[in-house]
Amino acid sequence: MNSALSIVNLEKKYGKQEILRGIDLEILKSSIYALLGPNGSGKTTLLKSILGIVKPSFVDVLAVDLSTVGYMPQQPNFPQNMRVFELLDLIIILRKKPAIYLDYLLTKLDVGNFYKKFIRELSGGMKQKVNIVQAFMFEQSLFLLDEPTLGLDPHQTYVLKGLIKERRYSGATVVFSSHIMSEVEELSDVVALIVEGEIYLKNSPDTIKAMGNFKTLEEALHNFWDEKI
Amino acid sequence: MKTLAWFEFKETIRHRWWLFYSISLFLLSSLILYIGSSESMRANASLLNLVLLLVPLFSLIFGNMCFCESLPFQEILIALSVSRFQIYFGKLVGLFLALSSAFVIGIGFSAWIFWSDIFLLLLIGILLTAIFLSIAFFLSATIDRKELALGTLLIIWLFFFLIYDILIMQIALIFGDYPLEIPMFIMIFLNPIDLARILFTIQLDLSAMMGYSGALFQKYLGGFFGISIGVIALSIWVILPSFFGYIFFQEKDF
């Protein structure tokens, strides 16, 4: 089997409001998949549905091995009264796997400076670094990242993009949501445009640009987006 | 679950509200025991009222606050393949241990200073902590809107602490001509605060003031047998809300 994640006909409703409608996704191993769409289009709900954080209202197939997933939520909200190392220790115990990349990440992201500090003492950027460490410290085959560069400075963004590429080249699959077109264009093999809970468009960035002779992905998606709305 | 409960315990005892709760209990109980040192019966009754007032209220509010605050982190735990059973009950057990320890330290320390026997009071306080944390978890798991959950919790506390007694008094007044001992006896089990109050009162032998029904309660709830029945009934109050809360938590979207 060559797919890291397979979804057929996933739906999510809150009361009468349909958040996700008939989502079909087949994500190949060792690829980077970007989810794009306006605010409230259902990107986060889709990622959470894959993980079981949100229960789908209906789904025909949802094939994913959760024991091999690294997840980065959009806004990390860790227990305030624990120290960074205590939090990471807990995650290592619960994951029941060796955190083989821990030391590497601590050095690369300069987490050592605040490793013994309480979470409540950290700035937003520091918390996001801890978020990256907890998601990437294990050998995982699938990474689900919800707007991973949100709140990061340019240096940290560069480091994170490097990590994503490293993992992809070592055989892992990365699915991430983003609003930043340049990083989507730089990183992704496939882009899925989600509008009002449906996948409107799914293709490689180059193919999408070629569809209308657009110079940039931003221009192309803006055009499709306008068409849909 | 043990790992999560221990983590929750450590997280909670570092919370400033945990310290505030423990110190408040210590200061207030010390004041009561100091003022009532010549009349231990009255001091014990005042201590009981303090416990019945503060423990349910704090357990409800703090339980709801901790539950809601931890929801974003629970996303990460679910993504780590930790079961919802472990997350829910790990958090409940950890919080229970932390709040119970605050209670035992606060009240126990003052009792130790003033040489007062408070074993039953400690038992009742620990059980009330577990009951009202369970109720807080049940409501937090069922009601998504934080402010609505908090409002409902406060109404529940007011109902059990005050309104329920008024209702019973009204029933006693309206149906005074009928034999009410058995219905009253049953109704007491439907309010954990009342049950705790009566259990304690009977063990202190204050039930003589309660007339015929007091005699009935003395008969069934006096002595070791009575304590056992009371503790079992209070334990059911712990189990039912936490169990039904877990049923809702299993389907909860984060």
Explain what this protein looks like in three dimensions.
The complex is a heterodimer of chains A (229) and B (254). Chain A is of the alpha/beta class and 229 residues long. Chain A has a domain at 1-65 and 141-150 and 172-229: P-loop containing nucleotide triphosphate hydrolases (Rossmann fold, 3-Layer(aba) Sandwich), CATH 3.40.50. In chain A, 36% of the residues lie in helices and 25% in strands. Chain A is built from 8 helices and 9 strands. In chain A, strand 6 (142-146), helix 5 (154-169) and strand 7 (173-177) form a beta-alpha-beta unit. The longest helix of chain A is centred in the C-terminal third of the chain and has 16 residues, at 154-169. Chain A is globular. The N and C termini of chain A lie far apart (37 Å). Chain B has a domain at 2-165 and 242-251. Chain B is built from 11 helices and no strands. The longest helix of chain B has 31 residues, at 84-114. Chain B starts with a helix and ends with a helix. The mean pLDDT of chain B is 87. The A-B interface holds A 14, 48, 51-55, 66-67, 69, 71, 73, 75-82, 86, 90-91, 93-95, 134, 144 and B 3-4, 7, 10-12, 14-15, 69-70, 72-73, 75-82, 251, 253-254.
Q: How large is the radius of gyration of chain B?
A: 19 Å
Q: How many strands in all of chain B?
A: 0
Enumerate the spans of chain B where pLDDT stays under 50 for 5 or more consecutive residues: none
Beta-strand residue percentage of chain A:
25-35%
Structure class of chain B: mainly alpha
The CATH architecture assignment of the domain at 1-65 and 141-150 and 172-229 in chain A turns out to be 3-Layer(aba) Sandwich
Residue-averaged pLDDT of chain A, rounded?
89
Strand proportion of chain B: under 5%
- The gross shape of chain A turns out to be globular
Number of E-type strands of chain A: 9
Query: Distance N terminus to C terminus of chain A?
Result: 37 Å
CATH superfamily of the domain at 1-65 and 141-150 and 172-229 in chain A: P-loop containing nucleotide triphosphate hydrolases
Main structural class of chain A: alpha/beta
**Poorly predicted spans of chain A:** none
- Give the count of helical stretches of chain A: 8
**Helix amount of chain A, in percent?**
25-40%
Q: Return the string of H and E elements of chain A.
A: EEEHEEHHHEHEHEEHH
Helix content of chain B: over 70%
Radius of gyration of chain A: 18 Å
Head-to-tail CA distance between termini of chain B:
20 Å
| CATH class membership of the domain at 1-65 and 141-150 and 172-229 in chain A | Alpha Beta
